[in-house]
Amino acid sequence: MSDPVEPMIPLVRLESAKGVEPESLRDFLERPAFDAAAESAARTILDAIATEGDAAVVRYANQFDGTRLRTQDLTVQRNEWAVARKAVDREFKAAVREAHQRITAFARRGKREDWSMASPRGGTLGEQFVPFDRVGVYVPGGAAPLVSTVLMTVTLAREAGVPEIVVCTPCGRDGTVNPHVLYAMETAGATEVYRVGGAQAIGMMAYGTATVRKVQKIVGPGGTYVTAAKRQVYGQVALDQVAGPSEIAILADATADPACVACDLLSQLEHGTGHEKALLVTDSLRLGQAVARAVIERTAGLSRREAILKVIPTGLMLVVVRTLDLGMDLCNRFAPEHLEIHVSEPRKWLRKVRAAGAIFVGHWSPEPAGDFVAGPSHVLPTGGSAARFSGLTVDDFRRRSSVIAFTRADLLDTLPVIEVFGRVEGLDAHALSARVRFERMS
């Protein structure tokens, strides 16, 4: 097989926000969050699972993953967990412990506590937080064993207090789950694991089958088919966000190192779905040109060179702008999953970010630190949905209830307001519900 041809790196110059915008840039910035073909395929799979249950799950798993699973094979048994524990090395176990501790500490610090305040007439108002009873976590497989995704999801569910944590992940053609992934699941606190991936895993968790009881919420990233399936089961279950193929935007000035910027762009392009997006916005033409050269140079030594070279023509965009303010406007419009700020005074620009899943501030904060170990979850909104959604947190695994505990004096104080709203909205029983208490109760 011949080596893939090195692609041209797309580089666009933009002088003004009011100028004519190249169509290629507009299409890149306004990429769709969902794929139409995936939507249709996911609907077919989900409908089959809703009616056929396990039989459809097994059929699609075998069709798409090249396995020979039977219904009784779907569950990963506890003895497999023990085998995985022995199969992984000490260095890996230490890395998992370190990441798990950091993720737990961040989740614990960010978890909201129950609170209350006094009402004007002696009662109390507040909120309380209760964990879901049963959640589903999707962990992508395929090209890479995403150990970090296990930790960035299951750890949060466990810290939230969820008693039943169901994990679905694709297995290999031989039916085995990667031992590194399985060890991370055990460390993070998964209670059930199933060797199923793709849209069929989403359907199985959303609808329930004879093998797997229905969950209340599904979280986790995935490719286009998983993302499409998640969107279509909304309402059957709660969801976290649109977390599809990886993407990054970098705002940089002349102080940035082109090799560092290039490697950060490549860190997202190497995922291998073919739908990744990487955007550099800079006010330095020299940096933009140097990054273009460095991308090709650094790709040469990577194990996923072929996948990267294929995605570059549609997945990489370098934009040179007249000012960094214009550059930040483009980044906010892109609303990326990850935003890196490589400028001389990065914290000044941090305050101007309006839409990004996670922000990496300064030259010493590469995106992979967030992917693997920093603490915040790397499950983040993609496809521009960071303009509408936020990244996964521990509170996504809990239900919030408002609490109202009025006294007689509180209700008497608000009765006129209740009666006015009841009259205007034509809801007589609403007003009666409050008034009758003073007629019936002393």
Biggest β-sheet description: 6 strands, parallel
What is the fold-level CATH name, i.e. the topology of the largest domain? Rossmann fold
Estimate percent helicity.
40-55%
In CATH's first tier, which class of the largest domain applies? Alpha Beta
Number of distinct beta strands: 14
Q: What's the number of structural domains?
A: 3
Mean pLDDT: 94
What CATH architecture label of the largest domain applies?
3-Layer(aba) Sandwich
Spatial strand arrangement across the major sheet: 1-11-10-9-12-13
Work out the helix count: 17
Unreliable sequence segments: none
What is the percentage of strand-forming residues? 15-25%
Inertia-based shape: globular
Corresponding CATH superfamily of the largest domain: Nitrogenase molybdenum iron protein domain
What is the subunit organization of this protein? single chain
How much is the radius of gyration in Å?
Answer: 25 Å
| Structural class by secondary-structure content | alpha/beta
Distance between the termini: 89 Å
Keywords:
single chain, 442 residues, alpha/beta, Rossmann fold, 6-stranded parallel β-sheet, 5-stranded parallel β-sheet, globular
Question: How would you characterize the overall build of this protein?
Answer:
The protein is globular. It is 45% helix and 16% strand. The mean pLDDT is 94. α8 (198-207) packs parallel to α9. The N and C termini lie far apart (89 Å). α10 links the parallel β9 and β10 (277-282). With 442 residues, the chain is α/β, with parallel strands linked by helices. The protein has helices at residues 23-29, 36-52, 54-65, 78-87, 90-110, 147-160, 179-188, 198-207, 224-232, 258-269, 285-299, 305-315, 324-334, 346-350, 367-372, 408-424, 428-440, and strands spanning 11-14, 115-118, 124-131, 134-138, 164-168, 192-194, 217-219, 238-239, 247-252, 277-282, 316-321, 338-342, 358-361, 398-405. The protein has 17 helices and 14 strands. The protein has three domains: 11-16 and 244-374, Rossmann fold (3-Layer(aba) Sandwich); 36-241, Rossmann fold (3-Layer(aba) Sandwich); 406-440, no CATH class. The protein has a six-stranded parallel beta sheet with strand order 1-11-10-9-12-13, sandwiched between helices. The chain has a five-stranded parallel beta sheet with strand order 6-5-4-7-8, with helices on both faces.
